[in-house]
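Fold this sequence, please.
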Amino acid sequence: MISNLRKAVRLPQPRTRGVDLSHPARSPLGTAVVNCAVYVDGVRQDGNHPADVAIRRVRESGSGFVWIGLHEPSEKEFAGIVELFGLHPLAVEDAVHAHQRPKLERYDDSLFTVFKTVRYVEHDRLTDTSEVVETGEIMVFTGTDFVITVRHGGHGSLGPLREQLESVPEQLALGPSSVLHAVADLVVDDYLDVTAAVSIDIDDVESEVFSVRGSGGAGRIYQLKRELLELKRAVAPLDRPMQELATQPMAQVDPRIKTYFRDVADHLDRVTEQITAFDELLNSILQAHLAQVTVAQNEDMRRISAWVAILAVPTMACGVYGMNFDYMPERHWTFGYPLVMTVIVTLCWVIHRGFKRNGWL
């Protein structure tokens, strides 16, 4: 029954992005509630019921679960669902106000999981102020007969994921934890996509730094490091929750899905390793850029010093003969001026040739 689990939760490339929340088929229950559906044996039941009707239907029948999806609910919009499902006040506060670190909290009869979603921001050319990574959040309340997803941000829609899961009923038949796994897998897959895109930006900066022109600016490198830090803040804290879901027994998680949580954790480790490698590479690129700047400044100083040394010869000679003394050597000699000019030019040529031979010019 679970042989197609990975196939079910991995969306084909390219993934469908964005869902119109104003569409009646997507938001039939209000501005915050995107969807509310009952699933029995992995099959979505007909009808769009309010949350209280849906959960009563499930508990009276003793089978299936309710999946409620919300987008940036207010406290007032969320209050009814909180009371209906008995959600913990601390978790509810985090879900409404967002801006949380990835984490997993266990309460009496439910799990509360926070995921940081990321999206790569397309740009024609990386600048000192380019936004590379945009973050959002998905919170998941998981119980024995319900799963509630709360999304914050303009990306990371779960509409395509819901449709994908509904096409494979044996996946949803495993219960609410199958949705939790699917969300985790989708979020981590997006991490992989973003790191692949960021690597292209890093390659571009590296190529510019080591090009003949050497135009790679430190500002762009620092900007990439800032965006990489934001990505790291989204990825790194999720490691512990994934390990707990993969290894520790939980009443809300079907034991048959734990193997697949381990697979998600492995992918997350891969992303973490890539981010660490990217950070080290950017440090090396920055050091190389600063070394190039230092070398270029030294070369400029050598050229300036060489020309100053060359110009010192005529400056000295002109300074001596510009002192207007009455008795000076060769002042009244016919060939005095041509001789002095010849000596100046010759000395300047000899010094210039010496600097040129030594690579200073």
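The radius of gyration is 34 Å. The beta strands are 33-40, 43-44, 65-71, 103-106, 111-120, 133-142, 146-152.
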